[in-house]
Each structure stands twice: as structure tokens, then as C-alpha cells.
Design goal:
The complex is a heterodimer of chains A (about 250) and B (about 240). By secondary structure, chain A is mainly α. Chain A has one domain. Chain A is about 75% helix and about 0% strand. Chain A has 10 helices and no strands. In chain A, helix 2 (about 35-55) runs antiparallel to helix 3. Chain A is globular. Chain B is built from 8 helices and 10 strands. Chain B is globular, with a radius of gyration of 18 Å. In chain B, the strands form 2 sheets. A 6-stranded mixed β-sheet of chain B has the order 6-7-8-3-9-10, with helices on both faces. Chain B has a 4-stranded antiparallel β-sheet with strand order 2-1-4-5, covered by helices on one side. Chain B has 2 domains: about 1-80 and about 150-240, P-loop containing nucleotide triphosphate hydrolases (Rossmann fold, 3-Layer(aba) Sandwich), CATH 3.40.50.300; about 90-150, no CATH class. In chain B, strand 4 (about 60-65) and strand 5 (about 70) form a beta hairpin.
Chain lengths: ~250, ~240
């Protein structure tokens, strides 16, 4: 048996290395999880294929950006809420908060994992949509606004996910996060354009962050620039960020 | 008056959950280089005490210093190891994968393969954490607390779920750690564990320290440590 030198020699690795390591391990664990893959890729791909071959009233011009919005929604909200809730329940957050990674590094690493997963999703789904016949008409400005919209939406959804994961029991988060995912997928202006909802509901739906993301991406993919989705997402980000900051609990 | 050789100083700590007092002016000191045991019945506040020391819970009042620094200080990064009572691991990760990940957060970690060998985990190093036995999970949990070569380790019921062989092996490892200069604070329900390991014992009941001393001081009147424990704590079943 090799002798171990147990004498104390504590020293943290460089901050960037710690965050990258955490981002890599968390994204690897997410990819291994079949349920998360279902949310991240299988459902969006199924919607794309159904839109292309089934007799539905939405063209790929609308479905392409809508499915990208759905991918952001599933990774930044549902996946993060569920994984963080179980990390809290299993004491992973408790352990990692006391390592050199610390609370801020843990959040940064989690953010990096979301970005890596989302980039993978966006590449695969965009490739699939283009392969099926989607021809987006982004302009440089509309592409820039689309990127800004995705960044704001991701940050907002992550804050909402952390709020949920930090307050409820893990089993409750599993149920509630999946329920919210489905409700807003159908009724939140994410896949279905806001103009197709009843007129009385439109102002309410337009105020949702999911609708802001969906409408913002659909407009950008047609070369148009909308300002209101950015404003709506900024307001949600401030509110969700403050609530998560105040409400998040590291232990169960 | 705090002693200058205290690695942990807790003074008049008060924590409330939902209006219920969990810690009520709890005070204790853990000496540098020693192994301090905190004994108490379920719900006495032992885990809450550790969570205050690791900045996971903010007390209503009182103060906590670890290694001479206030909790949450950036200068403490990496100097503390924690073995939480719950798993402390993702369920789908392999033991060796978790330990390599944790080692990567430190500049001078323990080498992972010998650590795995030392804790008897060689045969299950590539098994997902959720498929390990309770004792194996505890061993991985302990390895995770030690891999960064910390100065101070908090161990929350470190041998719970271990068989007698694994328990004795863990005691041996904790003695080696102390001999190597690592300071430890452990919580336990096991009187024999405290008797075998502790330099100083604090018995906690309902959020307060009811008695403290060395095992010899506590048992000098002839009783066992268990008798002292029973005399200075209250049964939750009876309350």
C-alpha cells in the first residue's frame, strides 16, 4: 500500500481552472442523464420533425426559432432546477461551498455548464432545422439582438430555477419544474406565436419571459428587431435575480 | 477568554429555524492539532453548528472564527475539509471521478489512487455513487473531505453506516491525520468513538453545551461516557 502524506498542504487551484472543471463535470453528468437529454434534444427534435412532416399550421420559419427558444428554456430552467434541487438534497452544494470552488465559483461553473450544453443544443437543433428546410434570414443587427435575448433569457431562467431549487424539496421541484415546463411550452408563447392566442390573453402572455424569448427569436430569424422582449426579460431578470439571491438555501 | 491555540472559536451562537431555537448561545473551542468530539442526541444542533462554521447558515447572533478568521473569509478557501452528513455527491458519478474532480480544485491534492486504496475503495472506484453500500459511500465522503490536504476537517457523523472493520480503519486514519497535524471536529452519537478518539468532548443538548472536558475528566466520578451523556441530555422521545 502506498503511504499517503496526510500533512496539511492546503492551496486552491487557480480560479479559472476550478470553474472550468466544475462546468465540465456538471455538463458531463447532465449529458449522461437520459431524462435531461429527453428535455434537451429529443422533445425539440420531435417538434421540428412533426412540424416538417405532419399537417400542422406552423412553417419551419416559425418552428426553427421556436425550437431554439424551447432548448434554452429546457436547459436553463427545467434542467437546472431539477439538478440543483437534488444537489442541495444530496449535500453536493454543502460540500462544494466549503471547497476552494466556493459559492460564487459553483454558480459560475453551473453557468458555464449551461452555456456548454446550450451551445451543443443550438448547434444540433439549428443543423437539424436547416437540414429539414429552415432558411433563417438573420441580419447582423437582428442576430446581435437574438444573442442578447438568449443571454438575458438564460440568466432569468437560471435565477428562477435556483429560486425553485433553493426553496422546495427535491421531489417537489421535479414535479413543479416539469409542470411549469409543459405549461409554458404550450401556453407561454414559447413555441406558439403570441398572435395565435386569444386577444384577451395576449397582454398577459407577452409579459412572460418565455414569450419574450420566443417572440424575440422568431422576429430576429426574420431579420426584424423587437425591443419589448429585451425590456420584459430585463425586468424579469432583476426580479428573479433578487428573489434567488434572497431566497436560495444551500442546505436542505 | 478564548485561548490563542483555538482552531475554532464559537461564542454565544444563536440560530432559529421557523421561530424555533436550534442553537441557544452555544459556545465552544476546538484546539489546534486536537480532535474535538461534539456529542448530542438527534436534533441537538450538531449539524447546524458545523453549517455555521462553514458559512452555510448565518446565525442570528454570536460569533464564529475558524483558523483565526471569520467564516466566509476568502483566506479560508481550501483550508477546510467537510464531510457532510448527507451524501455530498452526485448520485450518478463514479467514486474515482468525484475524487479526481475534487482533487482538481486544489493545487496540492492527495494523489487519488493511493487515497482510494487507503480507504478500501479500489474494488468499487468505478461504481456509480448510488450503487455503493452505505459504508462505501461514507468512505468516499471522507476521502472527499481529505483530498485537498486541509488544515481543519469537520466530520459530521463520519462512521455512521460503516461495518466494524471499516469503522476501525477510519479511526486509524483519523489518528494518523491528527498525528500529521490536521485538526478535526467530529460529531457522533457513538460513545465508543468519542472515547477512542477525542482529546476534548462537548456534550450538546437542545442547542447548548451542557458539559465539556476530556473523557477522563468527564468520567472521573466513575461513570461511563454514556452515563454522562444520558445525565446531561434529554430524550426526544420523552419530550
Amino acid at each position: 500500500m502506498t503511504a499517503l502524506d496526510l500533512s496539511p498542504a492546503p492551496a486552491p487551484a487557480p480560479a479559472a481552472k476550478r470553474i472550468i472543471r466544475h462546468g465540465l463535470i456538471e455538463s458531463r453528468l447532465l449529458i449522461r442523464n437520459g431524462e435531461q437529454l429527453l428535455l434537451a434534444l429529443v422533445i425539440p427534435l420531435a417538434i421540428l420533425v412533426a412540424g416538417r412532416f405532419a399537417d400542422v399550421s406552423m412553417s419551419l420559419d416559425l418552428l426553427g426559432p421556436s425550437v431554439l427558444a424551447l432548448a434554452v428554456w429546457s436547459s436553463a430552467f427545467t434542467s437546472i432546477a431539477i439538478t440543483t434541487a437534488f444537489e442541495r438534497r444530496y449535500g453536493v452544494l454543502e460540500r462544494l461551498a466549503t471547497t476552494p470552488l466556493g459559492k460564487s465559483g459553483l454558480l459560475a461553473g453551473k453557468g458555464l455548464a449551461v452555456i456548454m450544453i446550450m451551445l451543443g443544443q443550438l448547434v444540433i437543433l439549428t443543423g437539424a432545422a436547416v437540414g429539414l428546410g429552415w432558411r433563417p434570414r438573420f441580419t447582423p443587427l437582428s442576430a446581435l439582438i437574438a444573442i442578447l435575448t438568449v443571454i438575458l433569457a438564460t440568466a432569468t431562467f437560471v435565477c428562477l430555477a435556483l429560486l425553485l431549487a433553493g426553496r422546495l424539496r427535491a421531489e417537489s421541484v421535479l414535479a413543479v419544474a416539469n409542470l411549469i415546463y409543459v405549461i409554458l411550452l404550450v401556453g407561454g408563447g414559447l413555441i406558439i406565436p403570441v398572435s395565435r392566442y386569444p386577444a384577451a390573453l395576449r397582454p398577459v402572455i407577452e409579459a412572460l419571459p418565455t414569450a419574450a424569448l420566443g417572440e424575440g427569436l422568431r422576429a430576429a430569424a426574420h431579420g426584424l428587431v423587437l425591443g419589448w422582449p429585451v425590456v420584459v426579460l430585463l425586468a424579469w431578470l432583476v426580479a428573479a435575480g433578487l428573489a434567488a439571491w434572497k431566497g436560495f438555501r444551500w442546505t436542505s | 477568554m478564548p485561548s490563542p491555540d483555538s482552531a475554532v472559536r464559537v461564542a454565544d451562537l444563536v440560530v432559529n429555524f421557523g421561530g424555533r431555537a436550534v442553537l441557544e448561545r452555544l459556545s465552544l473551542e476546538a484546539k489546534t492539532g486536537a480532535l474535538t468530539a461534539v456529542l448530542g442526541p438527534n436534533g441537538a444542533g450538531k449539524t447546524t453548528l458545523i453549517r455555521c462554521c462553514t458559512d452555510l447558515i448565518r446565525p442570528v447572533s454570536g460569533s464564529v472564527q475558524v483558523l483565526g478568521l471569520p467564516v466566509g473569509s476568502r483566506q479560508l478557501a481550501g483550508r477546510i475539509g467537510l464531510m457532510p452528513q448527507s451524501a455530498g455527491s452526485w448520485s450518478g458519478i463514479k467514486a474515482i471521478e468525484l475524487l479526481h474532480y475534487l482533487a482538481g480544485l486544489y493545487a496540492n491534492p492527495l494523489p487519488v489512487p493511493p487515497l482510494i486504496e487507503r480507504l478500501g475503495l479500489s474494488d468499487c472506484a468505478k461504481t456509480p455513487y448510488r450503487r455503493l453500500s452505505g459504508g462505501q459511500q461514507q468512505a468516499v465522503n471522507l476521502a472527499g473531505a481529505l483530498v485537498g490536504r486541509p488544515e481543519f476537517v469537520f466530520l459530521d457523523e463520519p462512521t455512521a453506516g460503516m461495518d466494524p472493520h471499516a469503522r476501525r480503519a477510519t479511526w486509524l486514519l483519523l489518528r494518523e491525520l491528527r498525528a500529521s497535524g490536521v485538526t478535526m471536529l467530529l460529531t457522533t452519537h457513538a460513545m465508543d468513538e468519542a472515547e477512542a478518539l477525542a482529546d476534548q468532548v462537548f456534550i450538546v443538548d437542545r442547542g447548548r453545551v451542557t458539559i465539556s472536558g476530556t473523557v477522563r475528566q468527564l468520567t472521573k466520578s466513575g461513570g461511563t461516557l454514556e452515563t454522562v451523556f444520558l445525565n446531561h441530555t434529554t430524550s426526544r422521545a420523552a419530550s
